[in-house]
Amino acid sequence: MKKNEIQIVWFKRDLRIGDHKPIYQASKNKIPLLPIYIVEPEYWEQPFASRRHWHFIHDCLIELRQDLKQLGQGLIVRKGSVVDIFKAFSDHYYIKNIYAHEETGNQWTYNRDIKVKKWCKNNNISLNEFPTNGVVRGLKNRSEWSKIRKIRIHDTLIKTPQKLTALIGVEEGAIPEKNDPIFKNNFNGKVQKGGRIEALSILESFLNDRGKGYLFNISAPGKSEITSSRISAHLTWGTVSSKEVQNVITIKKENLLDNEKKIWKKNLTALSSRLSWRCHFIQKLETQPSIEVRCMHPLYEGLREKEFKNDLYDAWKNGQTGYPFIDACMRSLNYNGWITFRMRAMLVSFASYNLWLDWRITGYHLAQTFTDYEPGIHYSQLQMQSGVTGINTVRIYNPIKQSYDHDPHGIFIKKWVPELKNISETWIHEPWKMELSTQKTTKCIIGRNYPAPIVDHTISIKKARSRIAEIIKKDGYKDKSKVVLNKMGSRKRTKISKNSNPQLQLL
User: Are 39 and 14 in contact (CB under 8 A)?
Assistant: First the structure.
C-alpha cells in the first residue's frame, strides 16, 4: 500500500509562528503538515536541564498549539527520542521533508542532531535546516561573520502563513504537566511567564517606558529587573527572534521625536549592541561545541578540578557564603531565575577565584537556575569569568567593593538576607566586623544566625592570581592563545602582544 505524503516542522528552541522560516517554507507546499515538539526524556536527565525551564516552555507550547490551530493544524506533542518518533511516523507515512531551525545547543543536542541527520540520509528524507539569525553554521573565516550577521539581523521578517494543510487523523498528544516527574525536582521560587503574547507585551513596555532607565540601572540589582528588557528568556526559547527585536528597535529609533532622542537613542543602541554580542557568543559554541566541557585554552585544564570542595560549593549555591552581597544575589537568582549580567559575572568570579571551584560544576547550577539559559552564552561567559579562555582580560570581582558600589545602603541585601535586616549601613557589607555586643543588639550573631565568611576574600584572590600567573608563564601559552583568538575571538579586539600577558583586572 502506498503511503500518503507528509512533511514535518520540528520545533525546538523556536516556539513561535512569526518570523519562522521552517513553518513558512512548509506552508508553501500543499502537503499535509505535521508540526511537532518532542519531549526528550534523556535531555531532561542532563545536568543543565531543570523544571524551571519546562515551566517556561510549557507556557510557550500551550500558546503555540493555539496559534497553529488557528492556521488549521494544531501542534503535535510526543515523548521519546527524536529518531524513534520520526521512525514511528515513517512507518505510516512517506515523510517527504523535515523542516527545522539550526540549533546551537549543548553537546547532547549536537549529538542528537547528528543522529537525526544520519537517519534522514539513510531513509532518503530531505532535512531542511535554516539559520537562526546571526549564527553561521560551517563558518570558515571569523573575519566575515560580522558582515553576515548584520545582513541577517536586518533582513525582512518572514511572513506568518495564513493557512496550513492539515494532517487528518493524528492525535495531538498531551503536553506534559508542569509537575511531571520527568522534569526533575521542584524549585522554590517563580518563573517568568512564557509565550509569544507575553514576549511582545514586555518588549512593548520596554520600548514605551521601562527602557528609559536601561543603561543607568543595567548593573543595579533590584532596579535592573524592571528597567532591563527582560526579553532574554523569550529569545532563548524562541517566542521572538533576534531579528524581530532588532526590527522594533529600528522602528522606534526612526520615529523618535527630537525631545526623545537624548533619553532613548543610547538605550536603544545599547540593546542592539547586546543582540549582536548575543550572536557573537553563541557563534563560539557553534564553532566549537566542546567548550561546554573543555577549556578554550588547553593549558587551563586541570587547574581547579582536583581541588573541588563540596562544602564551599553548597554554601555558594545556597547563598550561605557569609558575604552578604554574594548571598543576596544568589538567593535572588534562585528565587527569580534571573539576575543582572554584572551580578552573574560576580557570582561566577567568586566561585572560580575565591572558592576555587571548577566552572563546569558551578555552571550546571546556574544553567538550571537561569530561566534564560542559553548554552552559547552560558559556556562562553563561564569560561571568560573563570579566566580560562587565554584571550580575555582576567576579571576578579571584589565582593566587598561590589557590595558598596551596587547596594550602598544594603537595601537589596536586607531584602534577600533577612538575617541582616537589623544591621546598619555601617556594617551591612561586612557584618563579621561588628563587635559581639552589636551583634547581640541586632540579633545577628555571626556564625550562628548568619555565617562567617567561608574564605578570606583578600587571601583567596591573592592565591588565585598566583595560580593564574603560573599558567600564563608556561611554554607555549601565547601560541595557544593565538589559536583561540583566531578561532573564537572578536575581530574588534586588539591582537595579543608578543611581550605582554593577558591583563588581570580587579573589580
Answer: no
